[in-house]
Amino acid sequence: xxxxxxxxxxxxxxxxxxxxxxxxxxxxxxxxxxxxxxxxxxxxxxxxxxxxxxxxxxxxxxxxxxxxxxxxxxxxxxxxxxxxxxxxxxxxxxxxxxxxxxxxxxxxxxxxxxxxxxxxxxxxxxxxxxxxxxxxxxxxxxxxxxx
Length: 147
What we know:
Elements: E1 5-11, E2 14-22, E3 27-29, E4 32-33, H1 40-53, E5 60-67, H2 71-90, H3 103-116, H4 118-122, H5 138-142
Parallel strand pairs: 3-5
Antiparallel strand pairs: 1-2, 2-5, 3-4
Helix pairs in contact: 1-2, 2-3
């Protein structure tokens, strides 16, 4: 039986779950091959982490289930999930017998993916800043006095 490892990512309202196994390089998004994704922009975003992996992408199979949001949000969420899956899969502490990559190759892949795009791995950094304690509220901005 093939062991699936699942990794989760989200972008805006899109949520993606990536499953990674040892394989021959198949990448499927919602059971559709990534090469058949209609929007070219979304396809390029999704293929970004795979291009960084290079020839190593031919040793794993990735399956991504994504829902919610628009097609750009879904493509970013799936790219984040795929890069987390590849880096998380290479972080195994013990040396599995059936792992297709050697330890040095896994460390190199993890380094390249983390250098590729820091904000993809950390998520969206454009979140709203929280309200400061003791700062002006909405009422104070609208009127001059409280009387």
